[in-house]
Amino acid sequence: MARADLMAAAARHRAALAAAALLVFPLLMPFKAIAVNILVQGLFAVGFNLLYGYLGLLSFGHAALLGSGAYACGIVLVRFGWPWWAALAAGPLGGMAIAAAIGALAIRTRGIYFAMVTLALAQCLYFIAYQATGWTGGENGLRGVNIAAIRLAGLRIDLVDPLHRYYFVAVFVIAALFALSRILASPFGAVMEAVRENEARARACGYDIRTTRWLAFVLSGGFCGLAGALQAIHLGIVPVETLYYTTSGLVVMMTLLGGAGTFFGPFIGAGLFGMLEELVSLWTVHWQLVVGVVFVACVLFFPRGVWGTLLAGRGR
Amino acid sequence: MLRPAPPSAQLTRRTLLASAAGAAALARVSILRADEPTIKVGFPVPLTGPYATEAQDQVRCAELAIAEFNEGGGLGGRRAELLARDDKLNPGEAATRTLELIEKDHADFIVGSLSASVQLAVNNVCKQRNVLYNSISQSDQIDALPDWSPVTFHEALTPHMTAGAVGRYAFSTFGKRVVFLSADYAYGAEMVAGFRAAGAPLGIEVLADLKHPLGTTDFSTLLPRIAALKPDVLCLSNFGRDQQIAVRQATDFGLKRTTRIVIPVMLYTARVAAGPHAYEGVVGGTSYYWGIESSVPSARAFNDRYRRAYGNKVPSDYGALGYAGVRAVLAGAKAAGSTETAKVAAALSGMRYDFYKGPETYRPCDHQAVQSLFIIGSKSKDMANAYDVFEVIATDPADEAALQSCAAEGHAS
Fold this sequence. Notes:
Structural class of chain A: mainly alpha
Strand order of the largest sheet of chain B: 7-6-8-9-10-14-15
Helix content of chain B: 25-40%
CATH architecture of the largest domain in chain B: 3-Layer(aba) Sandwich
CATH class of the largest domain in chain B: Alpha Beta
Radius of gyration of chain A: 19 Å
CATH superfamily of the largest domain in chain B: Response regulator
Oligomer: heterodimer
Radius of gyration of chain B: 22 Å
Helix content of chain A: over 70%
Distance between the termini of chain A: 19 Å
Low-confidence stretches of chain B: 1-11, 23-34
Number of domains of chain B: 2
Number of helices of chain A: 15
Strand content of chain A: under 5%
Largest sheet of chain A: 2 strands, antiparallel
CATH topology of the largest domain in chain B: Rossmann fold
Shape of chain B: globular
Number of domains of chain A: 1
């Protein structure tokens, strides 16, 4: 088979390829908890990339979407005792609800102003969570987001077991990736890219720019909210730092490291970042210096990110 | 419960080659040790960030406890090992580190953390997996339900104990007209609650309860207000850099002419960094000061051990907690003759020990270490050497009455 055909087939079945990669990932990886973190942060970066990579809107407030998903899941589980599946559903719904509100205000602006408005609104949410101690646990964070073993169709899934937990999270991440692949392949996905490439032309073609942006923001909130819910279940806690602006910065960094606007890029970025941090911090307390140097080098020499550069090399 | 995997499961090709080479070299000169797994103590502390100085001293002290245990023959020949990890002062990061320590490294015990939110995160991970956790930083909540669990232990003091002891001393010595100035987060709120609880029976008069945001660099808007109230005591419940700046500006402002400044947790490391002038006349509380060695033999033994290992320096207050926290779980394992969580927890509960500061015991209902607390004053003259920064003014002996009652924490007994 010619290489071009192979590439085309890979692009067509990108979600299935990602699924296969995620299913074998824990077998190669000694750090299971880091592996789950990479899954969750990868999904978070995928949600961010939907907005930044495909629509061209740089948000500095995505922590709000991750955090609202995490808190929505955690609060209904801890304070109301909902079953796990309902709590897990509350994550993306919470993310979408907050995204709908933030998006409605933020999409009126663009460029640096969009980044600043999202950052400001996300910080508002952080301080609300910080003060609402009765609901969120405030500075101490929300503890006790613990799910006992789940029985599903004769299977017993024990979330304390690292491998069970990985595959439990992976199932939802893979489902989200299929959904994302479907969205990107849909006419709506094409409109998003049209808006990114040339807003005036897209408007001239009769597309509603504002609705497209708002809808993309809400969808992004859904993915990030799901990531938040999975993180809450994985760690058993929701730290208030989830909503802090450094979390927003982290997702920008991971996406740029992997390659914005590519399907696999965010995951590669999350994986590289997670592994780099883990390995370097075992070796030296000055891990931030090493990670920073790698990031600067990437921005200077691989502006398309690791995966983006590989793709560009192939395409030549 | 998770059990340690057989050693063969953890081997990679590289470690296998390295250990084979090592074993070949060793076999000639000595008999190989019994092939028992080491006792692993996971130690997540913030090695980077604003509390790095304290955390790194905690690791140094914890290594002393490990070495001491191994010198004493370990647990029937089983040696102990410290696995220090950087939790980056972030609860999510700490939870991940703890998960890795339990799931990948098969740690037998977890000791560590240096902030209220981080220890609660670590505790949540440990109790879900039935791994014994000994916390070495201040929190009231970890002793209370729903956070507490039968495998949760707390070697550090609580804000209730600290503010209580400091408050009782300050209000009866300096006067009853009080102003609170605290950092606006959980730490400040818990300390103020502790001061109020201690002050109520003494009949204190709270003139103002002021809060400042975390990371404040200018207190000049608050200080005139405080000066106008002319309180006898200013209770300053903040930490790190905030504390240094507030103390320095209060000194410059002349507040010390009318008012005594009282700090619930006066850090050895912060005082060394800030210098004698800023802290002149300031009174505070601490869980440990190396100077108690003149009257406490176990403190002298601990200090000497530290001096021998680390170039004649002395341990810090929070560092000493690392030593006591690790030594306690290892002593528990020795007493139980096992590393099984339930047996060690049973051995530790109610255990009486004197590791570094006089007699202590883990109260059975909440596993809080009942311990002495020292009221210290900052020295500004007659200092014998660079480490001689505090003088012990009073000692609050280990007494269960200083703790929050079991019932108030939601425990049955």
